[in-house]
Amino acid sequence: MHRANELGYKPLDGGWGWMVVFGAHISIGFAYSTPKALSIFFKEIQEDLGASYSEIAWISSIMLAAMYAGGPVSSVLVNRFGSRPIVILGGLMCGLSMVTASFGSSIIYLYFFIGVIGGCGLSLNLNASLTIISKYFLAKRPLANGLAMAGSPVFLCCLAPLNQYLLDKFGWRGSLFVLGGLMLNCCVAGALMRPVLSHRKPSSSVLQNKVEDQTIKCHTKLKASCMENAKMFLDVSFFKDRGFIIYLIGNMMFIFGAYAPIVFLSAYAINQGVEEYSAAYLLSITGFVDMFVRPGTGLVANSKWIRPRIQYFFSFAMIFNGACHLLCPLIRSYPFLVVYAVFFGIGFGMVFALIFECLMDLMGNRRFPSAVGLVTIIECFPMLLGPPTAGLLVDVFGDYKYLFFMCGSVIVTGGLFLFIMNIYNYHMLAKENRAKSREPSQNNLETEDRVSVGEAEMKQTPGAAMELTDLEAKEKNGAKQDP
């Protein structure tokens, strides 16, 4: 009820809110799956435009980086205009970016329209959808968020084979054109996100007072909004927190190696002699497994045995994910590639089910919004550089195995770093807490010593001793006089 009081109304926790969840499922599904599913077209684009592996990988990298970097701007726009127009705008940007990119004749052209314009559109869709859910739901918010976030693996399962079918029928240009039309459905999803209306009927006097208060505070809020958002998302005081620094370093190492195996998985399978549709289904298998692993990991992490050790569980998930990539180059047949896709989906789902929960565990609920804004901005750099670096290895060595070796080793190193440094961090926190607990006891002992020393000095001074006896005599007389 405290949160409901802050909102000024009681969320419905149902009703039209489920239509909002359906719309968020669509917009979030496109936001997370599109940069991955576009990798189906990369081989054809590379041959048509004469691009290298590292150059073609920049498309997904720029798109993901723009999606994450646009988070603070999207939040400001949502607070100012609401979720419905922002999601519609994001859907228009995504659709037009894909349609325009289908006429591209250079790789730079695709960088701008697919990467920058499309990535910014996905950012608008993502943040606005998450915000509107928090306004419609309170008690059932975990369920609503889970159903909305399930759009990522569901859409990845569908888009990967669909993109392969479109590629065979229309080529990569026609496929981008059709995909742009599909992404316009985000505008329909945004239309479902109508603003939340309070069901209370205030009197005319109350309504007039509210209007007057809003007009008085309007200019002040507009002036302070930019500064507040800057402080919220760029709070440099987090860099003084040892736990935050440890988490950030490990998280950056994971992000650097996380997306390159997804981008090049289909191309690697085709290079191993796998049929194109079967190669595309590997992404669908990964997304399908991810769909069930994320909620399952959340249930396990919420248990009484894992909850206090969630940072170590996160380290294990990273090491498991990296170990899968290290073993992938040893695979030579399609059945074993399917096994790799299953384990990849398990590891990927485990990490992303815990990645923000671990940050909340370190920072707490109050500091989490500022911390996650800063983390997503910093994550743009390893996300931007990871796939192109992996593609450069393919260009230099002419073999995909070095790509998987690099990503796996970086992720495993990040997991080991988190495991070791969290042991050190918890040890130092326990030591600091013991030191703080000793300080009050030492202060009490010092005050007792000072009191005893003062009494001894007073007894040693003759004048003070005489004053003390006079006071005692007066107190005795007063006690006799006062019944």
UniProtKB/TrEMBL annotation:
Note whether DNA-binding occurs among the keywords.
no
Compartments where found: Basolateral cell membrane
Bias-annotated ranges (Basic and acidic residues)? 447-458, 471-483
Q: Where are the transmembrane segments?
A: 12-32, 56-78, 85-103, 109-130, 142-162, 174-193, 244-268, 280-300, 312-332, 338-359, 371-390, 402-424
Q: Where is the Major facilitator superfamily (MFS) profile domain?
A: 17-426
The terms under GO molecular function for this entry are:
monocarboxylic acid transmembrane transporter activity; symporter activity
- Cellular compartments per GO CC: basolateral plasma membrane
Q: Where is this region: Disordered?
A: 437-483
InterPro entries per record: MCT, MFS, MFS_dom, MFS_trans_sf, Proton-linked_MCT
Question: What membrane topology is annotated for this entry?
Answer: Multi-pass membrane protein
**Protein family:** Belongs to the major facilitator superfamily. Monocarboxylate porter (TC 2.A.1.13) family.
Which Pfam families does this UniProt record tie to the protein? MFS_1
Q: What is this protein called?
A: Major facilitator superfamily (MFS) profile domain-containing protein
What is the phylogenetic placement of the source species in the record? Answer: Eukaryota, Metazoa, Chordata, Craniata, Vertebrata
What are the alphabetically sorted keywords of the record?
Cell membrane, Membrane, Symport, Transmembrane, Transmembrane helix, Transport
Quote the catalytic activity from the record: 4-methyl-2-oxopentanoate(out) + H(+)(out) = 4-methyl-2-oxopentanoate(in) + H(+)(in); 3-methyl-2-oxobutanoate(out) + H(+)(out) = 3-methyl-2-oxobutanoate(in) + H(+)(in)
Signal peptide region: none
Organism from which the protein derives: Anabas testudineus (Climbing perch)
Please, which domain of life does this record's source organism belong to?
Eukaryota
